[in-house]
Amino acid sequence: QVQLVESGGGSVQAGGSLRLSCAASGRIFRFNTVAWHRQAPGKQRELVASISTLGSTNYADSVKGRFTIYRDNAKNTVYLQMNSLKPEDTAAYYCTCQVYWGQGTQVTVSS
């Protein structure tokens, strides 16, 4: 059974930074695209960023230039570096790979 465990969420003021981590229980990341999604209360789930096995990345327009996704295959971990955070970034953030989802980590940005 694959497990994805997110960490690194928290509360920050606007303009601050956080780094989210997603650790996999096996080497699933090495052979698959990994993505970060987020969902705020009352809003639809949104794909934030993804990274392919070759390192190609894609970002939602709302986070381009502020967020960076990267991977460390040796550690079976994918990261989401979030800079210049805005209150509208407040959401639960989920790491996903294939059909697997993590439990989520909350990010709260205050103005």
Overall description:
With 111 residues, this protein is mainly beta. 0% of the residues lie in helices and 51% in strands. It contains no helices and 11 strands. The strands form 2 sheets. Strands 2, 4, 5, 6, 9, 10 and 11 form a 7-stranded mixed sheet that branches. Strand 4 and strand 5 (46-51) form a beta hairpin. It is globular, with a radius of gyration of 13 Å.
Task: Kindly list the characteristics that best describe this protein.
four-stranded antiparallel beta sheet; single chain; 111 residues; mainly beta; seven-stranded mixed beta sheet; globular
Brief overview, please?
It contains no helices and eleven strands. The protein is mostly beta strands. It is globular and about 40 Å long.
* β-strand amount: over 45%
Percent of residues in helices comes to under 10%
Q: Provide the gyration radius in Å.
A: 13 Å
Largest sheet: 7 strands, mixed
What is the succession of H and E elements?
EEEEEEEEEEE
The N- and C-terminal alpha carbons lie at a distance of: 40 Å
Topology:
Elements: E1 4-7, E2 10-13, E3 18-24, E4 34-39, E5 46-51, E6 57-59, E7 67-72, E8 77-82, E9 91-97, E10 100-101, E11 105-110
Parallel strand pairs: 2-11
Antiparallel strand pairs: 1-3, 3-8, 4-5, 4-9, 5-6, 7-8, 9-10, 9-11
